[in-house]
Automatic annotation (TrEMBL):
<protein>
    <submittedName>
        <fullName>Oxidoreductase</fullName>
    </submittedName>
</protein>
<dbReference type="InterPro" id="IPR036291">
    <property type="entry name" value="NAD(P)-bd_dom_sf"/>
</dbReference>
<comment type="similarity">
    <text>Belongs to the short-chain dehydrogenases/reductases (SDR) family.</text>
</comment>
<dbReference type="Pfam" id="PF00106">
    <property type="entry name" value="adh_short"/>
</dbReference>
<dbReference type="GO" id="GO:0016491">
    <property type="term" value="F:oxidoreductase activity"/>
</dbReference>
<dbReference type="InterPro" id="IPR002347">
    <property type="entry name" value="SDR_fam"/>
</dbReference>
<keyword id="KW-0560">Oxidoreductase</keyword>
Length: 302
């Protein structure tokens, strides 16, 4: 791995189709911009269509060699996830790259449309369902990758199987850490199942370190420290872009910034021992399929 890797090192993406969730701002916008600049067709999958169109216009003004397309996706509503997957399949016969980036961080207690705690429901269950609904397209596209964006916060995370909605003890940081740990348990279990099914699709993960994005808008403490410690989104996106495009990436790899995992160029990093608990990952998978009513059909991906 190049220790000073930047988006300039990205391979050409011409002809590739990518979905980036939450692409209207922050890390997601930077990912969409960078991929389009290298020739990809990037689907900006966003909850707010108005904001997404403004964000797309900013990318178009840079005159990328690829293009950006806005599509509606609310990960906090599984009906919206299904509608997005259906609409995407009607327009695109392939999917090279799915970047599960969108997320809710440290909000007051709230629930998704289907009644899940909103961080767990949006950050994990929404992306779990989206991935499952598009798995066959990914499997049919040579060299496809699924990149799920986690966080350093996963290290303090615990999956509260007896209270996934945290109705008995909600703290914003507790919910966020649970959802980010779920992202990694999902990624590693997905890769194990892809390998078992003989699939070439890679499931990998990344995190942006401490980046100045809208994800911290609910945390006054973190926002006040941003000017001193946070790196700009253009740097924070590099682990995601590396995971998505670098040729030496392997399944279950996890990438973050090089300097204490807070800032700097991307490198391969280690996640917490809890994220490698295979029994917990299988249990979370089963629960996620039950809650979303999305079953992963690996055999249909050939």
């Amino acid at each position: 791995m190049t220790t000073s890797w930047t988006e300039d090192h990205m391979p050409d993406q011409t002809g590739r189709v990518a979905i980036v969730t939450g692409a209207n701002s922050g890390i997601g916008w930077e990912a969409a911009r960078a991929l389009a600049s290298k020739g990809a067709t990037v689907i900006m999958a966003c909850r707010s269509i108005a904001n997404a169109h403004l964000a797309a216009d900013r990318i178009q003004a840079l005159k990328p060699s690829g293009k950006v397309v806005v599509m509606a996706l609310d990960l906090g509503d599984l009906a919206s996830v299904r509608a997005f997957a259906t609409a995407f399949r009607q327009n695109y016969p392939r999917l090279d790259l799915l970047i599960n980036n969108a997320g809710v961080a440290h909000p007051p207690y709230g629930k998704t449309v289907q009644g899940f705690e909103q961080q767990f429901g949006t950050n994990h269950l929404g992306h779990f369902a989206l991935t499952g609904l598009l798995l066959d397209l990914l499997g049919a596209t040579p060299g496809a990758r699924i990149v799920t964006v986690s966080s350093i916060s996963h290290r303090s995370g615990v999956i509260h199987f007896d209270d996934l909605n945290l109705e008995r003890n909600y703290k914003p940081s507790l919910g966020y850490a649970q959802s980010k740990l779920a992202n990694l348990l999902f990624t590693y279990e997905l890769q194990r199942r892809l390998v078992a099914a003989g699939q070439s699709t890679l499931a990998v993960a990344a995190h942006p370190g401490w980046s100045a994005t809208n994800a911290l808008r609910h945390s006054n403490f973190m926002r006040h420290l941003n000017p001193m410690f946070a790196q700009p989104p253009k740097m924070g996106v590099l682990p995601t872009l590396y995971a998505a495009t670098a040729p030496d990436v392997r399944g279950s790899d996890y990438f973050g910034p090089s300097l204490l995992e807070l800032r700097g160029f991307p490198k391969k990093v280690e996640s917490s021992p809890r994220s490698h608990d295979e029994a917990a990952a299988r249990r979370l998978w089963t629960v996620s399929e039950e809650l979303t009513q999305v079953r992963f059909e690996f055999e249909d991906s050939f």
